[in-house]
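Lecture 7 notes: from sequence to structure.
We start with the chain below.
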Amino acid sequence: MRNRLMELLLAAATILALLSPAFAQQPVPRTPEGKPDLSGLWVRTDDVPGSLGNADSFSDEEPSMTPWAQARFRAAREGVANPDDQGREDLDPLLWPYCMPPGLPRIYLRTGTSTFEIGQTRDRLYMVFEVHSTGRAIYLDGRKHLDGAPDMFMGNSIGRWDGNTLLVETKGLNGLLTWLDSLGHPMTSSLRMEERFMRTDHDTLAIDFLFDDLKAYTKPWTGRKVHALMPDWGLLEYTHCEERGRREYLQNVLKGDKGP
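Predicted structure tokens for the same chain:
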């Protein structure tokens, strides 16, 4: 499991590299079709210009919530003194004993690790997140959203290119089984999420978000996250509840059995 402090230090080193003249001269790579190549291993950076919110949120401003969402949010925040801290641990669907996947969009935030890798082809973009080794496919072949498909933690994502920007629309999310962010903002299965992926330079990937869920929010609202390229990193494993589950399994099932 990657040490979070090391992650932040390496991200800071990458940000410093962005300022060097040699780095600035590197062009954005492109695919054989001439599109920006978004491939690479990326980690979220919250302290660079343009990135909104903190490690647990998408925006610097509080979204306008419906009465239902306000009640859910107040419950998730009850007893949490610092407004920048995560929501109540006993109500967090990620944590013990629930151990739900973070799902979209929360998987981009501080859910143990913010690292993901992108692989890109002509008609697909694949994302693998370090959390739960979660995979996501974004279809670029002109298809429509799945009709009648069950709601999923990663939803159903369809993308298209608009110049150098990849526009992605995601529907069919498990709204009530996760939080939208780590602060405890709720969401419903009506959420429609838009992402705009932009490789602003060789080592920087910016993603603009739009959240449209009128059952939870009175109007659509936006956010932005910026990611730094980590070419020398490799994906590790991070599983929620692993430490507690491992301890209980060792005690209750293996009972000291160290194997042959």
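Points to note: Residues 18-23 have pLDDT under 50 and may be disordered. The beta strands are 40-45, 115-120, 124-129, 134-139, 156-162, 165-171, 192-201, 204-212, 221-229.
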